[in-house]
Fold each of these.
Amino acid sequence: MANNPKPQPNEWYVVRNSQIHGRGLYARKDIPKDTWIVEYVGERVDKDESDRRANALLDSAKESGGARVYMFILNDEWDIDGNVSWNTARLMNHSCEPNVEAQTWDEQEIWFVALHDIKKGEELTFNYGFDLECWEDHPCLCGKASCVGYIAGDDYWPALKKKVAAKKAREEKKLREAATVKKVAKGKKSVTKKVAAKKEVAAKTVAVSKKTVAKSVKAPAKKKQAKKSKPAAK
Ligand SMILES: [Zn+2]
């Protein structure tokens, strides 16, 4: 391996708290395009063991909502389980605009390689390449202008964008329905008030008309008296 072009990993990055998630890898200095930055190391496992571990992690993720799968395909026979403490590359975060990509070295090693020139201090990111199964469980926090909102391989972006749009439409419909229910509730209140107001008016009218009736009852009596007295006066 005398011609091995891969540099020592620590030359290129430092581990720091990330604005995207947890800890992340940051460029220690300017990194030229095509630099082999860091090897993705871990335990070599065959495909059956890889499936078993991935499924176990997914099950625990369903319960805890948090686990990540660190399995990388190495070749037709072997995968690498990178969920080990000595694999600092596992801390690299996902981004919709990554500056690093994973490449295999002779199907024996997996390395992260600079996609373009990276400035000192930039966070190193790659695309996790997730498919769309459980896509809603993996929101993306990369903060890039082109962010599609969820962690997914760019092959899946057209389908993902449709799913995101449908989800948004569903949520907006829910909001509209909630607003309508509120309006109806408000409408009911004002109707009740109006009914109460009408009742008050009606009660007043009755009282007024009762008074009138009382007056008009008294009045004929007076008239009667007057009538009576008139002839008496004659
Ligand atoms: Zn994103």
Amino acid sequence: MLTLDHVTKTYRAGAFGGGSVTAVDRVSFTAAPGEVVSLIGESGSGKSTIGRMILGLTGVSSGTLTLDGQRVRPGKDFYRRVQGVFQDPFSCYNPVFRADRVFDLVRRAYHPGVGDKEWADRVEKAVRDVRLDPAQVLGRYPHQLSGGQLQRLLIARALLLDLSFLVADEITSMLDASTRIDVLNLLAGLKERGLGVLYITHDLALGTYLAEKTVVLRRGRIVERGDTQKVFGNPLHPYTRTLLAAVPRLNQPWDPPEPVRSCAFHEAGPSATTDLYETEPDHFVACAQLPDCGRTPA
Ligand SMILES: Nc1ncnc2c1ncn2[C@@H]1O[C@H](COP(=O)(O)OP(=O)(O)OP(=O)(O)O)[C@@H](O)[C@H]1O
Ligand SMILES: [Mg+2]
């Protein structure tokens, strides 16, 4: 179980380190094994920062972040269990080496005792599992492969480890529709194997529908979270409503959504509370405009 409890990240900003930016502000949620949690929100809302903190790539400024009760401690044992796949797959490859070197690195670090034949079989299976043809992708250099192929090779690499948790940051944004569905099916398969997934996206991509839980982030704070059906079926925060209204319907003329109405509770500046109200079981929202706002937060 991954648990974030009032996790905050403040970056130093400005030429002389004088200013600071609170990219993530007292964010709390959990992700259980076999659960997909989708983290949605506009560009700059702090989604990748949360992913990077979970992966131990960025330190937590305050609050606690634990996996199965233990604080995240980056290292070999940790990365055997937790891996990330990112938006830009090119940045994960060294252009000088063949793309499948990423598998050699996994072998060297985690499976040094596995024989050549056995390892080649495992790699081939992982590559087929991500719907790639080993003959077409293995042995090639990164520039000879498409973004989607590189992305899927990274997921294949994750499959070769004994993973418990995957951070998937915008992994489908550069894939075409049919490849995207392949990758989403893959995530559904991982979920069935008991893997927890944080699915980060800035739009309500298909993947959102894989998620049993949804966390809506705006300017570093959670505005709404809970059971996906409840959050999308009955969105309460104006920002969540705007996000939903912005999804074009193919069979209807485009009707641009109204911009987010200002929310006094939420726009009150850095000192504003991040308390959420439980409006129904497993559905939490931060909004002063709720009729029952003002009661004690959950
Ligand atoms: N290393 C850093 N130093 C200073 N500020 C940073 C750093 N990384 C991110 N930020 C700032 O933190 C905020 C959140 O950034 P983050 O990358 O987490 O957003 P995001 O929600 O992933 O956006 P996108 O959808 O565009 O990927 C932004 O204002 C960004 O400028
Ligand atoms: Mg991002």
Amino acid sequence: MSSTTFRIGSFVLDNRVFAAPMAGVTDRPFRMLCRKLGAGYAVSEMVTSRKELWGTLKTSRRADHDGEQAPIAVQIAGTDAAMMAEAARYNIERGAQIIDINMGCPAKKVCNKWAGSALMRDEPLALEIAEAVVAAAAPEGVPVTLKMRTGWSDDRRNAVVLARRFEGAGIQMLTVHGRTREQGYKGSAEYRTIAAVKATVSIPVVANGDVDSPEKARQVLAETGADAVMIGRAAQGRPWIFREVAHYLATGDLLAPPLVAEVRRLLLAHLEDHYALYGDFSGVRTARKHIGWYVRSLPGGEDFRARMNAIEDCKAQWQAVADYFGQLGEQMDRMPAIADLQPGAPDDELATDAFA
Ligand SMILES: Cc1cc2nc3c(=O)[nH]c(=O)nc-3n(C[C@H](O)[C@H](O)[C@H](O)COP(=O)(O)O)c2cc1C
């Protein structure tokens, strides 16, 4: 594979900087924004393989790909091979062009109820699921990819063994988050296991975990030899990180942070898209976390967040954001550079809630 071309099946991606699936965050409006701002690829939030939930509003919103740029990648989660195969077929019928299997979620509820990284503990079942999903997707010409962690626990770091088996089962790309299931989001991601996976298989490997700047992206690519990097939490409230990383990888130069006026425009458009998907009642509530992330490192951001959280109406929320960024633009031209941001606490709470 050349350093500039990245393929999944017949899809050629624009670059090697991907947006991570994040339940409750990477809905269609946010994914489309990430793509527009430079992400070469974006995976949907996971969709359960439990059929009885497919009709729920939550799942149907997650399966909404209206206007989304190809390739449309849908992540599925479950513990039963036949159900996972059916979920793959169901999502392909609804527009999925790539199916991603979730073996990366650490949250307890997922491990008890469904699957996620719990599957890494049961290698025969993990393999059975991979084979069943590949068999279901192959007749449609849909590639199947898989996202996992480095292992179940420190002494059961089995990503390399599994990677070889998944490749044999026909999985076409592997993403590895450099933490074990036991770690949750604690500690730091390690990249040695990702490098070992990359050295073992010949399908593309994507490195994930704690990539939060252009320099870190380059370091992780160099350390792992991976074909791409995937960014999750660092894109919350900073979706332009994708173009910053892509530009740096391509040229070695750092882009200037975006103008406040541009971010005002992007965020207001993001909100409009968000309200259109969720409706007024849910829209105003689910938009709060996004707005909070955008303003967290800005002057007066915490006060604004507290005021904004009390607003119960989309129009008033939109206007408050427009006014806040309008006033901010009078104080500063550009957003703070990544290097000037305070490191935020890991969003453990939210990650756990999101899987409920
Ligand atoms: C709020 C939240 C939701 C997540 N949801 C998913 C998910 O649905 N599927 C998945 O494979 N990983 C999920 N993850 C894990 C991320 O895709 C990613 O592997 C992890 O956050 C590490 O990358 P980062 O350090 O760049 O954030 C989620 C993470 C967060 C913080």
